[in-house]
Amino acid sequence: MGTGAALGGAALGGALAATVGGSARAEHGSATPASDASAKLDTDAHLFRLAAAEPSRYDGGTLRGAHEGTFPVLTGQQASVYLVELEVGGIREPHWHPTAWELNYIISGKADWTILGTHPDGAYRNDVFEASQGDLVFVPQGFFHYFGNASNAEPLRVLVVFNTSAQEPNDDIGIVATVNSLPREVLAAAFGVPVAAFAGVPTEIEPVVITKRK
Description:
alpha+beta, six-stranded antiparallel β-sheet, 4 helices, 12 strands, disordered N terminus
């Protein structure tokens, strides 16, 4: 090998060694991470067994969630995922999310959907439809909506993705709490009925989330 070739090879080898050495130092934390989020990638677990998580149980179904409280790597990432399972007759309480949109994937079963929101012309639009296995349903931020199990024979399983890392009840306003937050005379005036018409509405304000058709 000529002297020039040897020198060239040595230079190339040195450059590669420097590159590899720099990468190794970065991997071992000597380099400053670009952001707190990237730093988390070295320390937090990236696997969450959603289907095996302990569910919150309701009259009508269950709810399992991966959010910043249960899956720390999601902290600051503006993302959370839920697995909703509704029994026959099960209903996700009518509600809306003030700070997040949601994307729903029907894993199995059939779902009745209602989505209410305003549009640029100022009119209300009430979108009512049925979604089946393999379908995606998008609900814009702040739109009032609900879904229920449309089958009389099988459960409904839905995967829900939010653009927030918070636990769902922290960004959820349900219809039961909404009605109970208002004086009965105000409700009566809004609906144009006597105050007595609301006598049967429970007065205790608590999250319902999932319920069942009576």
